[in-house]
Fold this sequence. Notes:
This protein has helices at residues 5-20, 25-38, 59-71. By secondary structure, it is mainly alpha-helical. It has a domain at 1-40.
Amino acid sequence: MAHNPILEEIYAARDQLLADHKGDVHAYVQDARQRALASGRPIATPKQRSRHRTGAADPDAQEAGDHLAAAR
């Protein structure tokens, strides 16, 4: 494999972050979250996205969809 100094730097940073937290990824994530909250900057919270079933492949599902549309 070719020598890639950028990847080596990334791997070294990852190793250092894990070493700072004794190899505990969960501890690192908790620390990162606390630092993000303490920064005062807004944190995005994306809405949960779900798939909408059209029922095109299942005629019975289409009837269920019609009932849902009527309830709205």
